[in-house]
Design brief:
Blueprint: H1 2-5, E1 8-11, H2 17-28, E2 39-42, H3 45-48, H4 52-58, H5 61-71, E3 82-86, E4 113-116, E5 128-130, H6 154-159, E6 165-167, E7 174-177, E8 183-184, E9 193-194
Antiparallel strand pairs: 1-7, 2-3, 3-9, 4-7, 5-6, 5-8
Length: 195
């Protein structure tokens, strides 16, 4: 499936609801990155490694196998982060710094990110959005307007005829994402959050 979409697939493995809730509760105690940001993070490995859901992901042989096969090498885990996205009024929300405008990640030459929805994510909770077949192997085929680094608005992407895919899902949804693909987060509506 990942080859068909240019680097995206998702599934619903079984996570304990209590394990997911444990990390949700820790995220609820984090402060946002600033008044114009909707996101709060836990990046401290000594905190994250104690979480059962993190342990399950890090030591899952099938996840490692998918990463190895997709990347064509022995994958190396180099970061674990948990975050919560909350509602911020659009007049002050910095959607660019919160990665809510379309963009390509360029952290490394080749990598695969694995996202897990810790709670149900529907249209109000700011689902992850990606544009199929826009990762590195497809980059030369993209319209000239996308042959640059930076952020792209919904209108720019639509004018170029690209059709995004929106990934909603129940808690525990696991997303394999080659974020060299054009992608973004979406704004969360009032009284909702995405974990």
């Amino acid at each position: 499936k990942m080859k068909q979409t240019g680097g995206y697939a998702y599934c619903n493995p079984s996570f304990s609801e209590m394990d997911l809730l444990s990390l949700v509760n820790k995220l609820d105690n984090c402060k946002t990155q600033g008044a114009s940001s909707a996101r709060s993070f836990i990046q401290d490995w000594s905190t994250l490694r104690e979480e059962p859901v993190v342990q399950q992901l890090v030591y899952d042989a099938s996840i490692r196998m998918v990463a190895d096969q997709y990347l064509g090498c022995d994958a190396v885990l180099n970061m674990v982060t948990a975050w919560k996205t909350s509602y911020v009024h659009e007049s002050i929300h910095n959607t660019s710094s919160d990665a809510m405008l379309f963009h390509f990640d360029a952290d490394h030459n080749r990598f695969l990110k694995i996202f897990v929805y810790l709670t149900d994510v529907g249209p109000r909770e700011g689902p992850h959005v990606f544009v199929p077949r826009t990762s590195s192997p497809y980059r030369e085929q993209l319209p000239a307007g996308l042959q640059r680094d930076g952020r792209f608005s919904n209108i720019e992407v639509a004018r170029l005829g690209l059709i995004p895919a929106i990934i909603t899902g129940t808690k525990g949804t696991l997303i394999f994402a080659d974020t060299h693909c054009l992608h973004r987060g979406t704004r969360v509506t009032e009284n909702h959050s995405r974990y």
